[in-house]
Amino acid sequence: MKIKNLYISSFRQLGRELGLKVELFDGRLVVIAPLWRKALSTESPFCKALVACGYLTERQMLHAARRYRLGATLKGGVIFWQIDAEEDIYDGKVMYYREDCHRDHERHPTWVSTMLKRRYKWPDADRLTTRHCLFGLHLLSQQESNYDTSLPVVCVVESEKTAVILSEHFPQYLWLATGGMRNVQPTKFHALRGRKVIMFPDTDPDGETFKAWYEAAQEIMRQPFWESLPPITVSPILEQHATPEQKAEKIDLVDMLFSTRKP
User: Fold this and answer.
1) CB atoms within 10 A of CB 77
2) How many other C-beta atoms can be found within 10 angstroms of the C-beta atom of residue 224?
3) Is-contact 219 183, C-beta < 8 A?
């Protein structure tokens, strides 16, 4: 598994510290044992809250955590690893959740790469950067080159939490997450060429997120790699069915789904 855009010498040292086998092939560093296995865990407050709040059963949570390779930090963060379809690790997003399964806004998200830079005091750490990909991209089939109706539809949402939850309630689809409203860049969708894609933007009072994702989808479909492929659908379900109060709260698909299940 290749770790991109980081100093070779730094990752050799990191490999020794973590007990990983690290080799250099064609000028690129390859970590033989995957980093995500070192942090794989269902003991994060996030995983526990998924069950306690009724979003998933224990069995569903364990299945989803294994599929998405969720990790945990010693300080209570969940790690959403970003791994592409070729098993290349891009980075890991560390987020913190409360017991009600909502974000702990008093603790800012960070990246595994940032934590490693700080821990190992790498030279010129401020200039080291990593690329990012869609969360869940490693779940893609390798048969990407031609449109195949037997492949599951790819559904793209904003929140990693939403992708994890909906993957168990609607397993007939493949759920990926951008990790942020503004993270819908064409380069991140190259791996989805040949697949039927439905995007589910969050809602807001003015419909700005829907407009931004719709425009982003049009830009993706104008790229040479998407030419003559299935069109990307941007679902208006939240814009059409969310109440003004829900739009003010900027709900997503999970919020809508579980609001309808309340007695």
Assistant:
1) 25
2) 5
3) no
Q: Which tokens in the block code for residue 132? A: 């990012």
pLDDT in tens, the chain (263 residues): 444 444 444 555 555 554 445 555 445 555 544 566 666 889 999 999 999 999 999 999 999 999 999 999 989 999 999 988 888 888 889 999 999 999 999 999 998 888 877 776 655 555 556 778 999 999 996 444 444 557 899 999 999 999 999 999 999 999 999 998 889 999 999 999 989 999 999 999 999 999 999 999 999 999 999 987 889 999 999 999 999 999 999 999 999 999 865 43
Structure tokens at 182: 């503004």
Q: What is the DSSP letter of 189?
A: G
Tokens 């990983």, residue located? 20
Fill in the amino acid letter for 240. Q
Q: Are strands 71-72 and 78-83 parallel, antiparallel or unpaired?
A: antiparallel
Q: Indicate left, alpha or beta for 207 from its phi (over 0: left) and psi (-120 to 50: alpha).
A: left
